[in-house]
Amino acid sequence: MSKNKIVEMKNVSFKYDKEWVVEDVNFTIREGQFLGLVGPNGSGKSTLIKLILGLNKPAKGSVHVFGQPIKQFRNWKEIGYVSQKSNSFNSGFPASVLEVVKSGLVSRLGAFRFFKREHTQKALEALKVVEMEYYANTNIGELSGGQQQRIFIARALVSDPSLLILDEPTVGVDAKHVTEFYDLLARLNQENGITLLLITHDIGTITKHATHVACMNKTIHFHGASEEYDQFSDQDLTRMYGHNVQQLTHNHEHGEVSS
To answer: Which CATH architecture has domain 5-258?
Structure first.
């Protein structure tokens, strides 16, 4: 029996001014999936995320989240989000790792409410999930890029989301740490039961960890199991994306990238 639909888009299109950046997209994420969303720059991937988060309204079609029309959905703590901007975090910001993670509970607390011991404990539990609990009292700026990304995932996890969305989370992370990062995401999916949507350019690596892959270039050209995606040749991918595509695989032992 198929699992519940976490996200469902039907015939969705969106444009900025006169330019259509998302066209006639039909897209579904089911409970328990780890979906890698790949595509060239300017293909509409980040715009698709904004549609799921309710930040953009479709010009055509419908978006449902957790079975509800996006206009009616209010339980936003069910969705954790790690944006590209996490990678450009101000390293001089005077906050401990624990404080950064607890800030993920602010929306739940409301204005003028103070953190209690239970919130600190919840933040520590989120840090333990990403194996960073020993850094709780460390200044966030003292951590490496890969470590900081784990902290931002913990911040997203602290509200117990059912869906975690990550937009290019490995940008700025050393290549040798990328595999560890993907292993963490796979563990969150398999052991913690969190549904994942990951935007990435790391085509050659994502299929080793994700259960499903979607290829986007304004519309969805492929959406299926990772094993099926692995059968495509570079020529097949070029036809999908509309221009030449090089699959990248990381040599993580030496921190190199090769095509």
So the answer is: 3-Layer(aba) Sandwich (3.40)
Q: What residue segments make up the domains of the chain, in order of their start?
A: 5-258
d(CA 36, CA 200): 7
Cβ distance 4 to 78 under 8 Å? no
Question: pTM score > 0.90 for this model?
Answer: no
Cβ neighbours of residue 86 under 8 Å, at least 6 residues apart? 148, 149, 152, 169
User: Angle at which helices 117-129 and 145-157 pack, to 10 degrees?
Assistant: 130
Q: Is the dihedral of CA 251, 41, 29, 224 positive or negative?
A: negative
Match 């979906």 to its residue by tokens.
Answer: 35
For the chain, how big is the Rg over CA atoms in Å? 19
DSSP assignments along 22-84, one per residue:
EEEEEEEEETT-EEEEE--TTSSHHHHHHHHTTSS--SEEEEEETTEETTT---GGGEEEE-G
Q: Assign 233 to helix, strand or coil.
A: coil
Task: Determine the pLDDT at residue 253.
Answer: 39
Residue 169 identity (one-letter amino acid): P
pLDDT tens per residue, range 53-63: 999 999 999 99
